[in-house]
Write a structure and sequence with these properties.
5-stranded antiparallel beta sheet, 13 strands, 181 residues, Jelly Rolls
């Protein structure tokens, strides 16, 4: 099998991973996460303790921006999505944005302190993610409005057509966010 390929981004610790997808008349197969192959390419230590799947029935579902207190490895099992990551850590990179077109053949590693979000571009998107800490109701998230003009994110589907939760619509603008220490 071919090897995954890691690419660093302008946000320290945020990695883009190209994943070989093997197709035939039955469908496709990929190793979405293979520790030895990724580590050989410089992937950071990442002890997975929980795996999650978010299913999104419609195109235009927009979730986030949420900076969680753990690292996250994101891959799609079905569909396409636009992802936006914002560095909310204290320092010179605060507010820096990277965007990605997510599909079955890639993944992203989002370090803690970076807010992640995505917008589905097709129906029936299965967004899978592995994390290195357990979710708990006491977990502290740092939140920012995904459509804050200060971020300059060019969302494929504009805010007035995006499907968002009331909670996500209530996130503060970047100017009101306290950087993650």
């Amino acid at each position: 099998m071919n090897q995954p390929t890691l690419t660093a981004t302008s946000i320290p610790g945020l990695l883009h991973v190209d994943i070989p997808v093997h197709s035939d008349e039955r469908g496709w197969f990929k190793e979405s996460f293979q520790r030895a192959k990724l580590t050989a390419q410089g992937f950071p230590p990442f002890e997975i303790v929980q795996g999650n799947v978010s299913f999104n029935a419609d195109a235009g579902v927009t979730r986030g921006l949420h900076a969680e207190p753990w690292d996250k490895y994101v891959s799609l099992a079905h569909g396409r999505a636009f992802a936006a990551i914002v560095d909310l850590r204290a320092g010179a990179g605060f507010g820096r944005v990277e965007t990605f077109d997510l599909h079955a053949g890639n993944a992203i590693f989002v370090p803690r302190g970076c807010a992640n979000s995505y917008q589905t571009l097709t129906p029936d998107v299965a967004y899978t993610y592995l994390v290195n800490a357990h979710w708990s109701p006491e977990a502290r998230y740092t939140l920012v409005d995904a459509f804050d003009p200060a971020l300059g994110i060019d969302w494929p589907i504009p805010a007035d057509r995006a499907i968002r939760s009331a909670k996500d619509r209530g996130h503060p603008p970047l100017a009101d966010v306290v950087p993650v220490s």
